[in-house]
Write a structure and sequence with these properties.
The chain is α/β, with parallel strands linked by helices. It is built from 16 helices and twelve strands. The protein has three domains: 29-247, Rossmann fold; 253-318, Helicase, Ruva Protein, domain 3; 326-373, Arc Repressor Mutant, subunit A, CATH 1.10.10. The strands form four sheets. It has a six-stranded mixed beta sheet with strand order 1-3-6-9-2-10. A two-stranded antiparallel sheet has the order 4-5. Helix 1 crosses helix 5, helix 14 (334-348) crosses helix 15 and helix 15 packs across helix 16 (364-373).
Length: 381
């Protein structure tokens, strides 16, 4: 599939965590080219996580093209009157007019890509492309060639040169989602892009100018990643010129009614032919829920409720919210603490077991054992 096309969300909604691909192993520099050839055979299955969006028209925030992938969110996520959300939009507006590299930090589902698009729409580069790439979704060998492209003959099967996402973003914005998952080799090469504003295609010898603005995003603590030596300190300082923290939904509960109303309008008429309405008990449940999946979870909950509710009236029992975990919070039982930690990390990484095992500091095999032990394996369709 072409990278310029938008694709639908691949994880099935019936599962709390999406199924993900296998874990990759580190590659030597000498093996990158050959491995890249192999990796490109599966490009069609992962290219949906590399997106090039056309320029947005002035003043039409409501018509933004929003692909249903990863950190993409519906337009409704720009809605909010809480002090926390107004502070986010204020900082985004302040940095938009500059060329400063921006780093967005927040939990999964808080709308980091939406804020990145908001910055792009207000910036001098608004008529240029918005190119988004998910650093965690691409195999190690494929990430570098997708970022920087490759020359003809760079590896077996490379019949012609291919521009990378850095080139495709020329004159616009390159959005690096889950930047902490970038491989060490890619980190070193991207550091040069930020420092020298130039790069080399895979197998190339001629430097190419990089006329881009970079917006990075992560759901992890970048300082912690640097402290653990999972992320280069010099790249951190280059990326974190201007940081914006996106609050989780539980910290901006005043925005839930507005967001819910926006999503219900988006879904339009339900099976009964009328727009669904929230009943008081349902709104009360929404306001008191912890929202581990943030705005993305709110949207999914309401979309599901719109389908199953009767007479267009959404009641609390139609919301299918996760049971509260308050009983686990103060426990001193080690197994309970371990189970809760695994649950939290699995939600943060949206079920990606490779990422979860790295974040937990255990092997993937050990993670599988614990998932089975605590009954946390997602149900198979």
């Amino acid at each position: 599939m072409s990278s310029s096309r938008r694709t639908s969300e691949h994880p099935p909604r019936c599962s709390p965590w999406p199924h993900t691909g296998g874990e990759t192993t580190p590659l030597s520099d000498e093996g990158v080219c050959m491995e890249a050839h192999v990796a490109h055979n599966i490009l069609d299955s992962v290219r949906e996580d590399v997106r090039v969006e056309p320029t947005m028209r002035d003043g039409q925030l409501g018509s933004w093209p929003i692909p249903q992938t990863h950190e993409s969110m519906p337009t409704g996520t720009l809605i909010g009157t809480s002090p926390q959300w107004r502070a986010v939009l204020k900082r985004a507006s302040q940095v938009a007019a500059t060329e400063a590299t921006t780093c967005l930090q927040g939990e999964s589902g808080t709308g980091k890509e939406v804020v990145a698009r908001y910055i792009h729409s207000l910036s001098p580069r608004k008529r240029g492309p918005f190119v988004a790439i998910n650093c965690a979704a691409l195999p190690e060998a494929l990430l570098e060639s997708e970022l920087f492209g490759f020359e003809r003959g760079a590896f077996t099967g490379a019949q012609q040169f291919k521009p990378g996402q850095v080139e495709l973003a020329a004159g616009g914005v390159l959005f690096l989602d889950e930047v902490t998952e970038m491989t060490p080799a890619a980190q070193a090469k991207f550091l040069r892009v930020l420092q020298e504003r130039e790069f080399l295609r895979l197998g190339g010898t001629r430097s190419i100018r990089a006329n881009i603005r970079v917006i990075a995003a992560t759901n992890r603590d970048l300082r912690d990643a640097v402290a653990r030596r999972h992320f280069r300190a010099d790249l951190y300082y280059r990326l974190n010129v201007f940081d914006i923290r996106l609050p989780p939904l539980r910290e901006r509960r005043d925005d839930i009614p507005l967001l819910a109303a926006s999503f219900l309008r988006e879904f339009g008429h339900g099976p009964g032919g009328q727009q669904a309405e929230l009943q008081p008990d349902a709104l009360e449940a929404l306001l008191h829920y912890e929202w581990p999946g943030n705005v993305r979870e709110l949207r999914n909950v309401l979309e599901r409720a719109t389908i199953i509710c009767e007479d267009g009236r959404i009641r609390a029992e139609d919301l299918s919210l996760w049971p509260p975990e308050t009983a686990l919070v103060d426990s001193t039982d080690l197994e309970v603490i371990e189970r809760r930690a695994i649950e939290r990390v699995m939600r943060e990484v949206e079920g990606n077991k490779a990422k979860a095992s790295r974040q937990l500091g255990i092997t993937r095999t050990q993670l599988y054992i614990r998932l089975r032990k605590y009954g946390l394996e997602p149900a198979r369709a």
